[in-house]
Structures are given as C-alpha cells and as structure tokens.
Amino acid sequence: MAAPDGADRESAAERAYVALREMAMVYRFAPGERLNEGTLAHALNVSRTPLREALNRLVSEGLVVADPGRGFRARPLDVKEVFDLYETRLALECFIAQLACERATSQGLDEIDAYLDESVKAHDSASVDRLVRLDEGFHERVAQLTGNGELARMLSGIDARIHFFRWVDMRGRRATTQAEHRAVLAAIRARNAPKARAVMRDHITRRLDQIVDGIRQGYASLYMGEGPASTDDDRETT
Q: Which GO terms describe its molecular function (predicted)?
C-alpha cells in the first residue's frame, strides 16, 4: 500500500479528531481508562500516525490525558478541574454579555431570537443531549455577537470540557433555561450591560457542592451505561 500523502494524512487526522473529540466530550471512554491505539485506529479506519496527531490535539484541549511513555488515557472526573472550568466560564461569559451590549447588531439579536423560537419548538420532545446542544448553541451565538473570534473559540473549548456535566444538570432544569436565555437576550437588546452581566451570572453560577453532586450523578450515569448521545442527528452546529 502506498504511503498516504500529506493531504490524505491531514484529512485522516481531522476525521479522527472530530470522532474522538465527540467521544471524549460525552465520556464514551471510562474516566482514567487507557486508550488502546490499535483498537481506535481500526474503529476509525485510520493509521497510527493521524490517530496520534488527533490524540495530541485533544491533549492540548484538555479532553485527553497524555501518559508519558505509556500512551494516552481518558480524562478523569475531577471536582477541582470542573469547578475551575465553571469559574472560568462564568468570568468569560459575563464579559461576553457586557461586550455584546456594546457590539451586537440588530440582525444578530434577531437571529438569536429566531434561534430561541426554534429551540422552544424542540424543547418538549428533545432528548436531554439535544437540549444541552441547544443551550451551548445559544451561548456560542451570544459570543459571536461580540465580533471577537477568540472569545467564541475559548467558550467553545470550555463547552466541550463541561458538556457531560451540563447534560447531568439539564435533566433537572429543562423548564428554566429558556426563560433565562430570554432574559439575557432582553438585557443585551436593551444595551443594559450591568443587567446582562447579572442575569448571565445567575444563569451560570454553580456552587462547589453542586459540582460535587453533579460529578456523583455523572459517575452513577456512566455506571448504569447512560450518558449523552453522540449522534450526528443531535449535534447542534453554530
């Protein structure tokens, strides 16, 4: 078999990255599990080189852990890490809400209004994972209102790492997120930065005991073979 050229290898690495990122986001691998590169390469129909490129990329994003001399393993369910991520998200999204008050266009706001209307239609029949992706879609669209691509990329990276915990949390909060999203958007439309920051803060804030409880529920869900779906049909694009 001829060696793949650079473009083919890059394509294979990208395909592996997309698939493995999704699997890592929803804890398809058990926390701390050592990843079998041979099995993964076969399952994803790629060679070891692009597979390792994808895995190293996920290491840099905090979704996979490198084990020097021994390969890679799945990230653990770590209370401190998850709390740090929520704390970082809180600071980032409060700033995003403030900046959106200054920079949002009427068209951008109207598009998010339409997005929320569509979200409401899907709400009653949607799976929990679908609701999480709709929630992520709202927040990432608000970030796009700032016109700052780096803020949007930072938020997307955090979202990937807390996706599983939002799935756990959403199961008990299905009825509240829509109203909170509407309140955030109304404050941004009114150009009321203090209000937008305050509403966003209330929407995101989680105490450490809530994080601990969420991780306990997450362990229980994984033990029972439950977890967020990872199908293309449930994937929300932004």
A: DNA binding; DNA-binding transcription factor activity
